Amino acid sequence: MARETALITGASAGIGAEFARQLAAEGTDLVVVARRLEALEALKKEVEGRHGIRCEVLARDLGSAEAPAAIHAETERRGIVVDWLVNNAGFGTNGRLAELSLEREMEEIRLNVLSLAVLTRLYLPGMISRGRGRIVNLGSVGSFVPVPYMATYGATKAFVL
Question: Strand, coil or helix: what is 109?
Fold first, then answer.
């Protein structure tokens, strides 16, 4: 059986990069996605050198509405079968909602909710047809309780839950 491949969003730092390291250590090939190409390239060099796996880099901004479909199309074009989808990318704004930038709040919703939902919908049929696959959606403590001065973040993480 071929090695599994995990697509990890928000892989340039933090929990996403750690998911990449841990899965690579288990022999899983990777597709790492984030905005920062340099950080993704450094992660690729690290995990390929340390674990002998294949790591593909896709520098995309999942805050744009077009990104999830573009990512799916690119993995299809490259012949990559995604066995793991780790929806980790996300961010939170802070402040009084009435005073925050509407565009930034919409970007937060697109990233934290829409990209997660679209990527899941695009990769799930292949997993079902193969009879295997894993989807990991990263939430937050903010998924469970109101988050003062972080209304949009709390709502988006409740969606993830």
Answer: helix
**pTM above 0.90?**
yes
The alpha carbon dihedral of 72, 73, 74, 75 has a sign of positive
Helix then strand count (H, E) for the chain reads: 6, 5
Q: Round to whole Å and give the CA distance between 105 and 151.
A: 10
* Beta bridge partners of residue 8, listed in sequence order: 32, 86
Angle CA(4)–CA(10)–CA(15) in degrees, nearest 5? 80
Which residues carry out catalysis? 153
Could you give the C-alpha distances from 58 to 13, 27, 92, 142, in angstroms and in order? 14, 20, 23, 28
Q: Nearest to residue 68, comparing CAs of 16, 9, 138? A: 9
pLDDT digits (tens, 9 = 90+) for 77-113: 999 999 999 999 999 999 999 999 999 999 999 999 9
Q: Which residues pair with 135 in a beta bridge?
A: 85
Query: HSE of 5 in the Cβ direction (CA atoms, 13 Å)?
Result: 19
Structure tokens at 54: 């294949």
